[in-house]
Design a protein that fits this description.
Number of strands of chain A: 11
Oligomer: homodimer
Strand order of the largest sheet of chain A: 3-2-1-4-11-10-5-6-9-7-8
Helix content of chain A: 40-55%
Strand content of chain A: 15-25%
Largest sheet of chain A: 11 strands, mixed
Shape of chain A: globular
Largest interface: A-B, 63 and 62 residues
Radius of gyration of chain A: 20 Å
Chain lengths: 329, 329
C-alpha cells in the first residue's frame, strides 16, 4: 500500500481543458487507490466531477489565467484563479503536490511565489525527462532561469539527481554539464566556471556532455542554464517531429513503400511511444516547497494521468525534503 | 564557363586522410574544369597525386597538426604544417580559398591568424548548412565563438545571409535569432539585447527562432552565439543518429517488420541522404580574407568533394568581398 496523499489539480490548464484534465484525473484516481485530489476550477466543472468520483473534492474558483498573460502579474492579481488556488492548497497543507497543464510561465510564477522556495535553494528549476531509447535522461533547467550563475547549476544538478533517483528510478545517477567539448577547458567562460564548481562540489559529476550525447543516456542527468537547456529540449522535439514527418512522407512515396509501411507500422508506433513525452506526463519544478508538475499545454488524458502519478511520486519520494537536506550541506 | 579559380587543400585533414582527401580532390577536379588545386601535405603523398592529375600542383610540407593539439599554439609553432601552408597560400594570393577536414579548432586558428579577418569583422564565425527536409537552413555561429557580444551576432547574421544567398541559393533569406520564446522580451538578457539590435540593424531579421523551429526552415538563417549554436547543431546530429538507430531496431524487431523494411529501404535511404551533412561537405568560416571550408573529421570522399565545390562557390560568389561591403556600411 502506498502512502496516502492529496494533490491539487488545475482543471483549467491545457489546450483542451477541462475535458482532458478531467479524463486524466479520473484515470489517475482509478489507478492509485491511495490518492485523493482537490480539483480547482469553475464550480460547474469541478462540483459534478467531484460528486461522481471517490476521493475527489471540488474547490470552486472564479478566475482564469490564460496563456498570453504576463505570468507574475497574473499570479499576483488573480488570487482566485485555479492555478493560484491549487498552489495555495499546497502552501496551506491541504495538498502535498500540484499538477497543471497551464501556461508554464504562470505555473512557475505561482509555484515559486505561492508555495515558496525550499530554504537554501537559490532558483527553482524546471526539469524534463527525455525518453531516450537507451534510458531516461533528466535535463535541467529547461527554461525557468534564462540567466544563471554557476552556483545555480550546482543546485540544479543536486536537485535533478535526487529526482532521477527517487522518481525516475536511476540508482546512482551520473550528472553531466551541457557543454561544447568534452575537455575541461572547453566552452564559454560560464561553462568553464560551472565545470570547475561541479568538479569540486558534486560527487556524481561525470564531466561535460555535448549536444550529441544528450540522447545517448551516457549521463542520467544533464544540467544547463535554462536558456541552453530549453534550446536543447526544443531542438530535440523539433528534430523528432521533422524526422517522423519526413519518415511518413518516405513511407508513402511509392506503392511498394506503402505496402512495406503497413508491415512496419506496429514497430514504428512502438518507437514513437518510446520517444513520447507522454510517459512522464510533465515537467517537475524542483526547489519549491511541495511537488509541482507542469504538463504540456497539448497534454492528452494519458499525459495528465501520468503527470499526476509523477506528482504523487515526488511527494512519496520526499523529493522536496531531500532537496532541502542536500542544499543545506 | 565558370570563373577559373585555385584552391589550396590540406591533404592531411580528417580521420581517413590522406586517402579520402585525395579521392575527393580528384572527383572535384573532374567535375569542375575551371578549378585548380594546390595540394599541401607530405611530399610522398602530394607529388605522385599532382603528377597524375591535371590542374593540380603539389606543395610539399613537413609538419602535421594532430587533433589533440592546442589550436593556436600548434598554428604558431608548426609553420610548415599542411594546414598553415594551405592558409598562407590564400594570404599570399596563390589560392583564393582553402579546404581542410582537420581539427576544427586548428583550422579556425590558422584561417584567422594566417589569412586574417576581413576589415570590420569583429569575429569570424563558423556556419553550417542544416539539410532540413523543407529546405536548407544556415546556422551560425556553431562553435567559433563561445562568448559573444550582441554586435557579433549582428555580423553573424549579415555574413550568414550573404552565404545563404550566394552559396546556398536562397533568394531573400530570412534571419532568425535562436531564442527560448517567440516574443521580443523572451530569453536571457543577452538574447534580449541581441533581439533589439537585430530588429534595429538587420533588414532581413524575422524574429526569434525557438529550438523546435530550426529544422522547419521557417527561417533560412538562424544566428546564435557559438555556444548555443554548437549545442543546437550537435543536439540535432545526436537526435538524428539516435532516431535512425532506433528506427533500424524497430524495423528488424519482427519477421513482418523485416519484410516491410525491405520494401521501405529505398525511401528511407533517400530520407537519410536528404538529412546528410555530406551534401554541403563542410562548414564555412565566414569573415576571413578568403574562402575557408572546414570539413567534418569523418568526411567521406563525397563530403570532401562537396566541401571543395562549396569553397569554389564561396570564391566565385565573392562572399568575402560582399561581407567586407556589408560590415563597412
Amino acid at each position: 500500500m502506498a502512502e496516502k496523499i492529496t494533490l491539487s489539480v488545475d482543471a483549467l490548464g491545457g489546450d483542451d481543458a477541462p475535458g482532458v484534465v478531467l479524463e486524466g484525473t479520473a484515470a489517475a484516481l482509478a489507478e492509485d487507490p491511495d490518492l485523493s485530489i482537490v480539483l480547482c476550477g469553475p464550480r460547474e466543472v469541478v462540483e459534478p466531477f467531484a460528486a461522481a468520483h471517490e476521493r475527489c473534492v471540488a474547490r470552486p474558483t472564479t478566475e482564469e489565467i490564460s496563456m498570453g498573460e504576463h505570468p507574475a502579474n497574473a499570479v499576483r492579481t488573480k488570487k482566485d484563479s485555479s492555478l493560484v488556488v491549487g498552489c495555495r492548497l499546497v502552501k496551506e497543507g491541504e495538498a502535498q503536490g500540484f499538477f497543471s497543464a497551464g501556461s508554464t510561465g504562470a505555473c512557475l510564477a505561482a509555484a515559486t511565489l505561492v508555495m515558496g522556495r525550499v530554504k537554501g535553494v537559490a532558483r527553482p528549476a524546471l526539469c524534463t525527462v527525455l525518453p531516450a531509447p537507451a534510458g531516461p535522461v533528466v535535463l535541467c533547467d529547461v527554461g525557468a532561469n534564462a540567466d544563471c550563475k554557476p552556483e545555480y547549476l550546482l543546485q540544479f544538478a543536486q536537485m535533478a539527481s535526487i529526482y532521477a533517483r527517487e522518481v525516475v528510478g536511476v540508482d546512482a545517477p551520473k550528472a553531466g554539464l551541457l557543454n561544447i567539448g568534452s575537455e575541461e577547458a572547453k566552452g564559454s567562460q560560464f561553462a568553464q566556471e560551472c565545470h570547475q564548481l561541479l568538479s569540486k562540489e558534486l560527487p556524481n559529476f561525470a564531466g561535460n556532455c555535448e549536444g550529441d550525447d544528450v540522447l545517448t543516456a551516457r549521463f542520467d542527468v544533464v544540467v544547463a542554464d535554462g536558456f541552453t537547456g530549453n534550446v536543447c529540449l526544443k531542438t530535440i522535439e523539433g528534430a523528432v517531429s521533422v524526422l517522423f514527418k519526413a519518415l511518413k512522407g518516405a513511407l508513402t512515396s511509392s506503392p511498394v513503400a506503402k505496402l512495406g509501411a503497413l508491415a512496419v507500422k506496429g514497430s514504428l508506433s512502438g518507437l514513437k511511444s518510446t520517444l513520447s513525452a507522454e510517459t512522464y506526463g510533465g515537467a517537475p519544478l524542483l526547489g519549491v516547497k511541495g511537488a509541482c508538475i507542469v504538463g504540456h499545454g497539448s497534454s492528452s488524458p494519458t499525459a495528465v494521468k501520468n503527470g499526476i502519478h509523477t506528482a504523487a511520486k515526488v511527494v512519496r519520494g520526499k523529493v522536496p525534503e531531500l532537496i532541502a537536506q542536500a542544499v543545506a550541506r
